[in-house]
Design brief:
The protein is α+β, with helices and mostly antiparallel strands. It folds into 2 domains: 165 residues, no CATH class; 144 residues, no CATH class. The protein has 7 helices and 15 strands. The strands form 5 sheets. It has a 4-stranded antiparallel β-sheet with strand order 1-3-2-4, covered by helices on one side. Helix 4 runs antiparallel to helix 6.
């Protein structure tokens, strides 16, 4: 069993056991690091998060890196997360049999490419490992997100939907059973080509307890319909940066795939599918859509996204514009 190297000046914190739960930050009203938020430890000092065998995140230990390049720091932190901690009852964030992933940085995201052994992990262990990894790597300056791939494919959740970009603010609070799975009846919207309209598809959606219902709903939309007679409304590779609710407004931040790879459907369909699906959830009165963090976008050169949608967009107005173009 590998141990931490004191030559790397890693020391344990004397703080008490941290009990952590994996729940959506937006549901808790605070906590967690936000993208771009500064860290308080001294430069070069990082907390290496571990997994508690009782369930939850174990207490982190301090590690000092002399590297200055973000990629080199991320690689070093990943290696540290494979080493078994000395604290009793704690294990490494990355199991030894999973191996060290390939590490790269693109923009503000660290990308971890794992081999197939990662997908063989126990589901509870995987959720806790992922939480520890995200908490550790988002301390690196300029890093706000962590993206996971397994054998070259995006890591998927219990529903088979891509987990997408994860940030530290997704992981806060206290936990007793981090691996709990929630199942909720949701009404999603997909396109009926024969009727030429959006139709509801009610189904049970399962998601990990650290994921919010609104995030699960958007992931399910990206995943497409179960009914073979319906068509997808969002590109299958749409990046979901974040889905957060504040003051009963749901802010959905998607990647450029949402605009660049929109399905060949009437222009209003993807927006209405998102809005109507989210409005069905408790606590949401309106929806704001962002692309790469910006609302200053004309969706397919027609629909401005710098507005809050409280219902379906007026499709007739955009149909008229398309016909007159």
């Amino acid at each position: 069993m590998k141990k931490r190297s004191y030559g790397l000046r890693a020391v344990l914190l004397t703080a008490g056991l941290i009990l952590a739960a994996l729940i959506c930050a937006s549901c808790a009203g605070g906590g967690g690091r936000q993208p771009g938020e500064e860290e308080t430890p001294a430069a070069g000092t990082y907390e290496i998060y571990t997994v508690d065998l009782a369930g939850g995140l174990g207490e982190p230990y301090e590690y000092v890196s002399e590297e200055t390049e973000p990629l080199r720091i991320a690689e070093e932190l990943v290696e540290q997360m494979t080493l078994e901690p000395e604290a009793t009852g704690h294990i490494s964030a990355i199991p030894e049999d999973v191996g060290i992933p390939s590490v790269s940085i693109s923009g503000s995201a660290v990308q971890l490419a794992f081999g197939g052994d990662y997908g063989a992990m126990d589901p509870v262990r995987e959720i806790l490992s992922r939480a520890a990894i995200v908490e550790t790597l988002t301390q690196v300056q300029g890093v706000s997100f962590v993206v996971f791939t397994v054998d070259g494919e995006p890591l998927k959740d219990a529903n088979g939907q891509p987990v997408g970009y994860m940030q530290a603010s997704d992981i806060i609070g206290s936990v007793s059973a981090a691996g709990d799975v929630i199942t909720m009846e949701m009404t999603l919207r997909f396109w009926d080509a024969e009727a030429e309209e959006l139709v509801p598809e009610s189904r049970e959606v399962s998601f990990a307890s650290h994921t919010s219902p609104e995030t699960a709903a958007v992931r399910a939309l990206v995943g497409g319909p179960e009914d073979e007679g319906l068509l997808p409304v969002l590109p299958a590779d749409t990046t979901i940066f974040s889905v957060q609710v504040r003051d009963r407004i749901c802010y959905v931040n998607l990647g450029s795939e949402f605009t660049d790879e929109a399905p060949d459907l009437p222009v209003y369909v993807p927006i209405n599918a998102l809005v109507l699906t989210l409005l069905d959830l408790d606590g949401i009165d309106s929806v704001q859509i962002l692309v790469n963090g910006s609302s200053s976008v004309l969706f397919r050169d027609l629909i401005p996204l710098d507005q809050v949608f409280s219902g379906a967009v007026d499709e007739s107005a955009y149909l008229t514009e398309v016909e007159g173009a």
